[in-house]
Amino acid sequence: MVRVVVVGATGAVGTEVLRILEERNFPVDELVPVASPRSIGRKLEFGGAEVEVAGLRPEVFDGADIAIFDVSEDLSSEWAPVAAERGAVVIDKSSAFRMDDEVPLVVPEINADQVRNRPKGIIATPNCTTTAMVMPLAPLHREWTVNRLVVATYQAASGSGQPGTDELWEQTQLAAKEPEAVREGRAGDVIKGGGTFVHPLALNVLPKCGSVREDGYTSEELKLCHETRKILGIPDLKATATCVRVPVVTGHGVSAHAEFDSDVSVDRAREILAASPGVELADDVDNDVYPTPLDAANQDPCFVGRIRKDLFDDRALEFFSVGDNLRKGAALNAVQIAELLL
To answer: Three-state DSSP class for 81?
Structure first.
C-alpha cells in the first residue's frame, strides 16, 4: 500500500502533480492532499473519487511512504524534516535543500542512482530553468565533458506563479484596448508594472529574475549555475547566466554556449540528443523546425534545437532548449523521482 502526501496540492504545480500521478497510473492507495488553511475541507477529484484537503500538521505524514512538497522555501525548511522524521521520503520542489550535501538533487534521466543517497530522507528537484537546460546538456557532457557554460534564459510568467500569469494577461488585455498607442511604441503609457513584476511584462522583457545577490547576479542566475554543477557532478564547472523574464505563459527557454574538453560534431550531437530519454530533437532550421514555448507547453520532453558549432571554437556548441516549467520543470520530475522509490 502506497500512501502519498502532496503538500501544496491546490497550487499550480500541486494540481499538475495530481494530474500526472493519474496519467502515469502511479500506484497510489491513499492520497492525502495538503494545502493552506483557506483550502482545508475542499474536495479534489482524484482516481475517480473525491479526496478532502487536509491542513499542514505533523500527523498527516504518519504512515506516509512519499511526501511531495511544492511550497515556499521557508515552509519546506520547516516541514520537510518533520515529514522525513515521521517516515516519509520527501521530494521537495523548493530551493531549501538543493545545495545541501546530504540531499541529492535529482533529474531521473541524468542521475537516478542518487535517490538512494538520502541521509536526511529528502530528495530535491531542480529549478525549472535548470531542468530545461541540463536535460540536453547532460548527454552531451557524457560524450565530450563540458568545462564552461554561458547561458541566457527566457523564462515564462508562470515561473512567478499564478500571480505572474494573471498580471501578464491583465496587461495584455489593457494593451489590446489601446492598439494605436501600442503600434506607435507607446505601450509603456498604457500598461504599468504590478505586484509581481516591477515593470510591465506584456510587450516587454525583464532582465531580472529573482532577487539580487552578490556581484550583481540574481538568485535565479546563481541557482542555475550551482544546480547544474551538482547535477552533473562538476563542482568546478565554469558557468554564468543571465536570466530574463519574457511575456510567455508557459515554457522556459535557454540559449546555451557550452565548451567541452574535446572537438565536437553537430551531427554527433544531434544523434546523441535524438536518442536521449526525455529530450525531443527539433532541429531543422531550414524548414523552420526549432523549439518554442508553445511547442513545449503541456509536453513531457525538453525540446532542443538550433544546434551549431561555435564559429571560432571547435570544442564549443550552441543550442536552444525549452521545457514546460510546470511539468518536467516541476511536477513531472517529482513524480518520476517517486516512481524510482517504488
So the answer is: helix
What's the rounded Cα separation, in Å, for the pair 53 and 181?
A: 47
- Listed as ranges, residues in the chain with pLDDT below 70 are none
Q: What pLDDT score was predicted for residue 1? A: 78
> 272: which residues sit within 8 A by CB, 6+ positions away?
139, 140, 143
What is the structure's pLDDT at 27?
A: 96
What are the tens digits of pLDDT across the range 212-270?
998 999 999 999 999 999 999 999 999 999 999 999 999 999 999 999 999 999 999 99
Listed by start position, the domains of the chain span 3-126+331-340, 129-161+197-325
Place of cell 489590446: 176
DSSP alpha helix (H) spans, 11-92: 12-23, 73-85
Q: Is 110 exposed, middle or buried (0-12, 13-18, 19+ CB in 10 A)?
A: buried
Q: What is the pLDDT of residue 202?
A: 98
pLDDT of residue 194: 95
Q: Residue 209: what residue type?
A: C
β-sheet with 238-245: strand ranges across: 238-245, 146-155, 252-260, 316-323, 302-309, 279-281
Instruction: Show the cell assigned to 260.
Output: 567541452
Tell me the three cell numbers of residue 176.
489590446
Q: Which CATH superfamily is 129-161+197-325 part of? A: Dihydrodipicolinate Reductase; domain 2 (3.30.360.10)
State the pLDDT at residue 287.
98
Q: Which of 24, 159, 21, 165 is nearest to 91 (CA)?
A: 21
Return the pLDDT at 224.
98
Longest dimension (CA), the chain: 63
Which residue, among 165, 155, 161, has the nearest Cα to 293 in the 3D structure?
155
SS3 83: helix
Q: Could you tell me the fold of the domain covering 3-126+331-340?
A: Rossmann fold (3.40.50)
200/193 Cα distance (integer angstroms) = 4
Catalytic positions are: 128, 252
Which amino acid, 196? T
Strand partners, 289: 284
Predicted confidence at residue 101, as pLDDT, reads 97
Cβ–Cβ contacts within 10 Å for residue 41, how many?
10
232 closest CA partner among 308, 162, 140: 140
Contact 129, 254 (CB under 8 A): yes
